[in-house]
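queue> holo job accepted (nicotinamide-adenine-dinucleotide)
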Amino acid sequence: MGRLAKKVALITGAGSGIGRETVRRFVEEGARVVAADIDQEGLSRTLALCMDHETRDIPPVASCLLDVRNREDWQAGLAMARDRFSKVDVVANIAGIGVAGSIEELKLEDFQRMVDVNLTGVVLGCQEGIKAINASGGAGAIINMSSIGGLVGPSDIAGYCATKGGVTTLTKSVAMHCAERGYPIRCLSIHPTYVDTEMLDPVASELGINRADLTKGMAAHVPMGRVATPQDIANVVVFAASDEAAMVSGSSLIADGAQLAGPRSAHS
Ligand SMILES: NC(=O)c1ccc[n+]([C@@H]2O[C@H](COP(=O)([O-])OP(=O)(O)OC[C@H]3O[C@@H](n4cnc5c(N)ncnc54)[C@H](O)[C@@H]3O)[C@@H](O)[C@H]2O)c1
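queue> job finished
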């Protein structure tokens, strides 16, 4: 039995990076999944990745075009989960965008785009997720992808930090609300350091450096000496969604290779 056997999850941002790997790991652990994204081509690649290429087994995954900014899309995606797999236990809000820039450089239209996807999208996912999980009648979890930028404020990602900080405290408020109402729904946020995904591509081109040099430079800021892989983070989502995390709610799960643990020793 997998760690997520019998669970049904809707995962956003499933067409790339952390979301794609989370879908793959959820299926590996026995979950049935609605993989949601605005990128149809990315979703097709995710589904192909979940296919067992030896047995040619059809994976228990449905794909759904879902814009997290749109309530009707959320309702349709969650209805798809109920129609195909009869219930909803887990909503993983992973879709997100990042535009770099200090507070003086930040363009208001870029900030607004990040608010719409990173924050409004998660608010809608929590609202519609609570309804869908409650309607399914069992215990469930809502997992929100924040960032270390949702806990501290590096100067070069001001707008991104503002949205991810919002996700951090929204998560706590949702966890408190569900607990106070007696809903058996946990809500957690996850805070990765740099993760080697497509999200870093525009950063490299903006800085005019190649991708390998970018990740090498980022790794130098992580005490454990490397950036995270999508699988490092997907494994945290698996734990958060599983019954192993039954008493974990309102928490910020940090996966940062000790980056926020403390200042570097003067002698290192
Ligand atoms: N990569 C990192 O270094 C890093 C670090 C910390 C946190 N995160 C967070 O992890 C999450 C996933 O990031 P990633 O690195 O996998 O990025 P990614 O760019 O590889 O994937 C993001 C996915 O979100 C989708 N998406 C964008 N807007 C959407 C919308 N309106 N509706 C639905 N889907 C939409 C994209 O199509 C894409 O498939 C994001 O929330 C990001 O902020 C990433």
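queue> The pocket of nicotinamide-adenine-dinucleotide is lined by residues 12-13, 15-19, 37-39, 42, 66-69, 94-98, 117, 121, 145, 147, 192, 194-195, 197-200 (CB under 6 Å).
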